[in-house]
Design brief:
432 residues; alpha/beta; globular
Length: 432
């Protein structure tokens, strides 16, 4: 079958974690939506319809994909799937038999639509969301199961259930079963999968009593680590005396220590030292300094407002941590408030107090003060070094993307600094 993933207008709600990637590449459970559907469906060809500024880097990331290509779309019937939809395993199975007379809706949002070749002329490489809704209006609406994510915290809220569903769908076989008497496996052994190439030290606890645990290829788990399901540890990651609590996804090639709860580390992220990360999403190439810690619950137990792109949004949840964009660096003892949004390529040097709840992309917190003095060339050099240490290059397309985002977020940085100074003036007047 041929499928294509499309971003709708809701993609803007996922700043800062989707500034450098399409929404369907965000992780929830073991996989991104794109990885999940290509894994479980018989996909012959696939394409994507994404924000234009992401085209170059995505072609580089997935050279097999047809990117914003309406000519390709017009060649054969193609099933278009919303980037924000998290389908149940049953819904995924049903996608193989979708007919051209039906449009699938989940919670009132268009989830999928089979587009005939002649209808592709209604779409362009920069405008597809609205035309797809018009085409869907000519079909019979069918309710489909799953969830529709609208903001970063939705991925966190859905993560435990998605981890459970992914584990059941993968039907793992051939994993390690004999860890020796000094590794404790609690719960049903069938709810634990450890790759034969993973290295588990003595004095490790794997607790599957409340959900399954999967540990992928090449993972190293150091002694005195506790892993509580549902949880997934991605290939090549290392855990150092970590306390990993339920609902956590650790993507590939991460370095993780300290306490983590109900969080997603997308991949290639470092949280090596002690400190707490709860109900947060950390993007690739982030380095969290020793004792970096976030709050994920307010003292009065009220719902948390998160300043996505600088504008506060009520999450409707009482448990929300921090969301950190690609290439950001936090110094030792960085303290994040409940519901903090940290943009792409920020540099955070705390001043002994809570960091600002919103740090725009390419912003700098220098001894506690937010400014716009980040040296972009030096930051790009740091990114090259960090990526080279993991065997990756900062490509020309990726550099162009970062430079584009730097310009696009310039006014956002200015506005954030003005707001901070206004607050400081207000506090000084009250204090006098």
């Amino acid at each position: 079958m041929r499928i294509a993933f499309f971003e709708d207008d809701g993609a803007d709600g996922f700043a800062p974690i989707a500034l450098t990637r399409p929404v369907f590449e965000l992780v929830c459970g073991q996989f991104s939506l794109r990885e999940r559907l290509i894994r479980f469906l018989d996909v012959r060809e696939w394409g994507v319809f994404i924000r234009p500024y992401l085209e170059q880097t995505y072609r580089e990331f997935s050279p097999e994909a047809f990117v914003n290509d309406c000519v390709w779309l017009g060649e054969e019937p193609t099933l278009l799937i919303n980037a924000r939809w998290l389908p149940t395993p049953e819904a995924i199975e049903q996608l193989s038999t979708v007919g051209s007379d039906v449009a699938g809706f989940c919670d009132g949002t268009l989830a999928y639509l089979l587009v005939d070749p002649f209808e592709s002329s209604l779409l362009s490489d920069s405008e597809w969301a609205e035309p797809l809704l018009k085409i869907a209006g000519t079909r019979n609406a069918a309710a489909v199961t799953g969830k529709v994510a609208s903001h970063p915290w939705d991925l966190i809220d859905f993560n435990s259930a998605q981890l459970e569903a992914d584990f059941r769908s993968c039907r793992f076989i051939g994993g390690q079963t004999d860890f020796g008497p000094q590794v404790a496996v609690l719960g049903d052994p069938n709810d634990v999968f450890v790759s034969p190439s993973a290295d588990i030290d003595p004095f490790v606890v794997i607790d599957a009593r409340n959900g399954p645990v999967s540990i992928d290829t090449g993972v190293k788990v150091q002694a005195f680590t506790r892993i509580e399901g549902p949880c997934h540890i991605g290939s090549g990651s290392q855990l150092f005396r970590a306390n990993v609590k339920a609902g956590t996804t650790i993507g590939p090639v991460c370095r993780v220590g300290g306490e983590i709860e109900n969080s997603i580390l997308h991949g290639f992220a470092n949280k090596y030292h002690d400190g707490f990360l709860g109900h947060g999403y950390v993007c690739p190439w982030v380095n969290m300094g020793a004792l970096s810690t976030n709050s994920d619950l307010k003292n009065d137990y009220s719902t948390v407002r998160v300043p996505l792109s600088g504008e506060p949004v009520d999450s409707g949840s009482t448990k929300v941590g921090c969301f950190i964009g690609d290439h950001s660096k936090t110094a030792v003892c960085s303290l994040f408030n409940t519901g903090t949004s940290i943009g792409v390529m920020t540099m955070l040097l705390p001043g002994g107090e809570l960091l600002p709840k919103f740090v725009p992309s390419f912003g700098r917190v220098w001894h506690g003060e937010l400014d716009d003095n980040l040296n972009l060339e030096a930051a790009l050099g740091t990114a090259r070094t960090a990526m080279d240490r993991r065997g990756h290059d900062l490509t020309l397309a990726q550099e162009r993307l970062l430079r584009h985002l730097y310009e696009e977020t310039r006014e956002q940085r200015k506005a954030a600094i003005v707001r901070q100074r206004a607050r400081q003036v207000g506090l000084s007047i009250v204090g006098s």
